[in-house]
Amino acid sequence: MKTRFERTLAAPPSVAWAYLTNPDDMNLWSEAKVRALRPGANGRHDGVGATRTVTVPAFGFTSTLDEEVVESVPHERFGYRVVRGGALRDHRGEQRLSPLGDGTALVWEVRFEAAVPGLAPLLKAILEPRLARSLDALVEVVAQRSS
After folding, report:
1. CA 99, CA 79: separation in Å to the nearest integer?
2. In terms of pTM, does the model score above 0.85?
3. Domains of the chain and any CATH numbers
4. What angle do helix axes 13-21 and 120-146 make, rounded to 10 degrees?
5. How far, in Å, CA of 4 to CA of 124, rounded?
6. Is 21 exposed, middle or buried (0-12, 13-18, 19+ CB in 10 A)?
7. 75-82 contacts: CB < 8 A, separation 24 or more?
8. What is the Cα gyration radius of the chain?
9. Using one digit for the tens of pLDDT, what is the confidence trace for 2-15?
10. What residues contact residue 108 under an 8 Å CB cut-off, 6+ apart?
11. What gap in Å lies between CA 67 and CA 23, rounded to an integer?
């Protein structure tokens, strides 16, 4: 199962990057709460090998996922995968940033399978609106902080 989102952010990729990769900045806009666990190869939260915990509320319950950064090209491309938790299997995400005037064009693709066969469409129906709302909030946060 795959889903894709596109947004335009009112800040250059060098500024937008932190909002997408730094857990403290992510918590300004994401419906899920993100906490850094271990820094990556460069000693930073956005380096390959960095890990973080993502707590996702849904229907009165919470699901906790552990993610690992698998690709990091600062200000251009950020990839992660879920290594533990949730009802998802083979969950990978990729965020691509490119300059667009004074701002950033963001493309975020998420690919996953369900741990239970046949459950993927339901999980997509739950995941997509949450990510869309979070990304809309990201657009607002970046616009407010960049003005």
Report:
1. 18
2. yes
3. 2-30+73-146 (3.30.530.20)
4. 130
5. 11
6. buried
7. 75/13, 75/14, 75/16, 75/17, 76/13, 78/17, 78/20, 78/21, 78/46, 82/112
8. 15
9. 999 999 999 999 99
10. 4, 5, 6, 7, 93, 94, 95, 96, 131, 135
11. 12
